[in-house]
Amino acid sequence: MGGDIIGLVAVIMSLGVPLGALYTYYRVRKLRSEERLAAIARGVAIPMEPELNQAARSRRAGILLVSGAIGFIVAFGLVGQIQADRDFWTTAVLGIIPLAVGIGFFVDWKLIHRDARA
Q: Of 91, 93, 113, 118, which is the most exposed, with the fewest CB atoms less than 10 Å away?
């Protein structure tokens, strides 16, 4: 009986968490829109938030992925040193995947930046 409940909870959580995140995103956007419309109705000047361009998005994604990958590698490397186990170093190598993607975003940012100058 216990294994069945664990499987049921795993399925419910794997489907429920993304749906909860989507609903939260929708509600936040709706509340921001209502707040903005109410301020416009009162005559308050609302500064428009500038959209990030493609270069800024690539740079931000690159920074986040590279720093996350370095943290992942260091964390599992430290666990491997503490446990003196080679299996943890095998897990730490998985951090190379987001590291490579982050470096790719940095290359994309640099190419966009170079094309914008030309």
A: 118
Evaluate whether 89 touches 80 at the Cβ level (below 8 Å): yes
Put simply, whether the predicted model's pTM sits higher than 0.85 gets the answer no
pLDDT tens figures, 15-52:
898 899 899 999 999 998 999 899 889 988 887 766 76
Q: Do residues 73 and 95 make contact, with C-beta atoms less than 8 angstroms apart?
A: yes
The domain of 39 spans: 1-49
Three-class DSSP category at 37 = helix
- Taking alpha carbons only, the member of 109, 7, 92 closest to residue 56 is 109
| Domain assignment present for 101 | yes
Q: Are residues 61 and 109 in the same domain?
A: yes
